[in-house]
Amino acid sequence: MQEENTNQIIKTIGEHGEEIYMKLQEVVNVGGKDYALLSIVEDDVLPSSDNDESEELIIMKMNKSDEECTFEIIEDDEEFNFVAQAITDSDEIEEND
């Protein structure tokens, strides 16, 4: 599993048309596909502190083309569980090092 650290704010539109800002925490590659680990932020600025270990992470599939990168909800439960387990296993390995 390859990881890439980034510090970006992504703006997306929620189910009810509202703007949602998310911080791109990491990009991970699982099974040859890229997935983004995101957390919701209050507005379009990075939080002043990265110490909040309890923040909820959102996993989304990344689709890259030459001009843009889009994020897609993982609707397949089996795919989501596979990716979440790979991320959890990777975190446990890193903690033991």
Decide which structural class fits the backbone: alpha+beta
Distance between the termini: 16 Å
Could you give the order of strands across the largest sheet? 1-2-3-4-5
Number of domains: 1
In sequence order, what are the helices and strands, one letter per element?
EEEEEH
Q: How many beta-strand segments?
A: 5
Q: What is the makeup of the main sheet?
A: 5 strands, antiparallel
Anisotropy-based shape: globular
| Rg value | 14 Å
* Mean model confidence by pLDDT: 80
Report the β-strand fraction as a percent range. over 45%
Number of helices: 1
How helical, in percent, are the residues? 10-25%
Low-confidence stretches: 1-5
Explain how this protein is built.
This protein is of the alpha+beta class. Helices cover 21% and strands 46% of the residues. The chain is built from 1 helix and 5 strands. A 5-stranded antiparallel beta sheet has the order 1-2-3-4-5. A hairpin with a 4-residue loop joins strand 4 (58-64) and strand 5 (69-73). The longest helix has 20 residues, at 77-96.
Can you describe this structure in just a few lines?
The chain is an alpha+beta fold and 97 residues long. It has one helix at residues 77-96; strands spanning 2-13, 19-30, 33-41, 58-64, 69-73.
Annotate the secondary structure layout.
Blueprint: E1 2-13, E2 19-30, E3 33-41, E4 58-64, E5 69-73, H1 77-96
Antiparallel strand pairs: 1-2, 2-3, 3-4, 4-5
